[in-house]
Amino acid sequence: MIQNENELRDMTAKINAAEAEIGKAIIGQKAVIRQVLYAMLSGGNVLLEGVPGLGKTQLVKTIASVCSMDFSRIQFTPDLMPADVTGTNLIVKEDGQNVFRFQKGPVFANLLLADEINRATPKTQSALLEAMQEHTVTVGTETYRLEEPFMVLATQNPIENEGTYPLPEAQLDRFLFKIQVDFPTLAELKEIMDITVTNKKVDLQPVLNGNDIINIRSVIRDLPIAEPVAEYALKIVVATHPEVPGATDYVKKYITCGASPRAAQAIYQTARAKAFMEGRFNVSFEDIQTVALPALRHRVVLGFEAIADGISADEVIKGIISQVSK
Description:
The protein is an alpha/beta fold. Helix content is 47%, strand content 16%. It has a 5-stranded parallel beta sheet with strand order 2-5-8-1-9. Strands 3-4 form a two-stranded antiparallel sheet.
C-alpha cells in the first residue's frame, strides 16, 4: 500500500511514464489515451466508439503491454453464445469416471477487449454484465471471481446499423466512460503511416503492473473532494433530468431521461484520477468539467426534438455544463 507523499509522487510519475509509452505506439488520440487511463485507475469499464481502422484494438493491446496485464479479445458476432464469453462446464474423464470441469472463457483476463460489442445478440451482451459490475462469473451453481485488476474495453461502430443490436440503456450505464475516437489529423496520419507501412518497429516497455494499479485505485478513492466541488458535480447530474424542479427549458426540450446515480459515481472517481495523474491531491472544478462529458454522453436519452434539430448528446451536455453554476 502507498503510504507517504514520496511514494505518491513516484506513482504519479510511473503513470505519466506509462502514458508516454502508450503514445509511442498510438499516434495522436492523446485525450483518448488519458481518458482510458482515468477509467482504468478508477476501476471502471470503457466503451470506445469510432469508425473502423482508427486503432481502437491496437490501443487496448498497447495498454495491456505497457501495464503488464493479461489481455484477451472477443470478436462479437451474431452467432456468439454466452458460453463463448464466460466459459462452460466440460465432461472429462478422471479415474475412469466422467466429471464436470469448468473451462474458463476469454473473460478471465485482466484486460478484455469486446470488439464490436453491438454485433452480438442481447443474450450474449448480457453475459458480460456480471463480469463488468461484480467482477465475477456464474456458471450453473458455481461463481468464479475474476483476477484483479479487471477491465472491459468494448468497441462499436457508430455508423453501422445493419446486423447490430444497440446496447440498452441499462447496459450502457455499466460503462464508466463512453469515449469518442476521432479521425487523426494529417500530421498524425503521416506518423501512423511511418510506423505501420514500413519496417520500423516500436518497442514497448512495461511500466506498470497489476499491483501498482490496485494500489492506485485504493489511493484515489481516498482523495478529498471539497464540498463545493462535489456539489457542483451533483448539480450537473441533476441538471440532466427534465422532470426535476428548476429544470431548464433547454433540458426539457432535448432530454427525455437523465443520468443515473452511477454518473455521479463516475464523475467523482475519474475526477480524482485526473487530479492524481496531474500530481494534485485534491479535485478542482475543472476536473469535474473535463470528465463530465465522457461520463454523461451515454447516460442521457435524447428526445425527438434533439434528433429533429440535429443536436448531439455532447452538445446537450456541454450546454448543461455551461449553465450550471459553481
